[in-house]
Design goal:
285 residues, alpha+beta, Jelly Rolls, four-stranded antiparallel beta sheet, globular, binds 2-oxoglutaric acid
Length: 285
């Protein structure tokens, strides 16, 4: 099983992610990793609560998180696969911590729609709170690929507009469904067909959506891995999702989360490479 990315992370990947808030990464994990994850996903499907926490969207779609907290394939993948390095290199972090993973499986003919949202349930602020969604099945127009509003993360960051309880409660996304055919809409919708081993990496502020699975034969499965880079800070606020095992409200607002078993470091930039991240102090100096 590969411990380094199967294909190089390029300057184009880095630029696309910075511009669009989402980038497609082709074939970063070898067949052995993907085969083990596919088998493990089948085991979770048979008994979800034994392996992790079932989310609010669990039902017509399987939605189970925190799988990496227990010994087994998901933990091995989080700690020993190149997932952390891939994310760190694309988002230009020097250190990457695992936050949680989340397995989504839409069985054939699942009507489950993931409505337009950004991932702002997490109890962190900052710009490095990415989601690496690794395809465990073929993903296409019919079975529910994820769609993104490219570049919208910049609008959110520049205007301080935060979706959900992380914001001031007043910000609402426009009805993106109404914008699909609007030639004057300032942003582009982006999506990709994926093969097992491909991934999409996306920013915490980017709106995303997936429709139900219209295929009567092909399940759509993906493992979302939520991580923290250097530019991530505690936001201890009621209504945000706590980190299981840590007391959210006693965390120091604005502090970078210290590595701990619940938020382990999974990648650090090698010492012989120049640092990619400029801390806030040196930016304002
Ligand atoms: O798998 C999906 O369709 C949605 C995934 C998602 O919304 C997420 O990972 O935040």
């Amino acid at each position: 099983m590969n411990q380094r990315p199967l294909n190089p992370i390029t300057a184009q990947h880095i630029a696309d992610y910075a511009r669009d808030g989402v980038v497609c990464l082709r074939q970063m994990f070898d067949a052995e990793w993907i085969g083990r994850l596919q088998q493990a996903a089948r085991e979770v499907q048979a008994d979800p609560a034994r392996f992790g926490a079932t989310g609010p969207s669990h039902g017509a779609m399987m939605s189970v998180s925190h799988l990496f907290r227990k010994p087994g394939v998901f933990r091995d993948f989080a700690l020993n696969s190149p997932a952390g390095e891939i994310v760190g290199r694309v988002i230009q972090a020097d250190t990457v911590q695992m936050f949680h993973d989340h397995l989504f499986v839409k069985p054939p003919l699942s009507p489950s729609i993931m409505q337009w949202h950004a991932d702002h349930l997490w109890p962190f602020t900052g710009t490095m709170i990415p989601n690496l969604w690794v395809a465990l099945s073929p993903v296409n127009r019919e079975n529910g690929r994820i769609e993104f509003v490219a570049g919208y993360h910049k609008f959110c960051m520049e205007t301080g507009s935060r979706f959900g309880p992380a914001g001031d409660g007043t910000f609402r996304f426009p009805d993106f469904e109404n914008e699909r055919d609007n030639p004057d809409f300032a942003f582009e919708f982006k999506t990709w067909d994926l093969e097992p081993g491909d991934a999409v990496l996306f920013h915490v502020d980017i709106p995303h959506y997936s429709k139900g699975n219209d295929s009567d034969a092909l399940a759509r499965a993906g493992l979302a891995m939520r991580m923290l880079g250097d530019d991530a800070y505690w936001c201890p606020r009621e209504g945000l999702m706590p980190v299981q095992g840590l007391d959210l409200l006693s965390q120091e607002e604005g502090a970078h989360p210290a590595p701990c078993p619940e938020l382990p470091v999974i990648w650090t930039r090698p010492a012989d490479e120049p640092r990619a991240f400029a801390p806030r102090e040196s930016l304002s100096a």
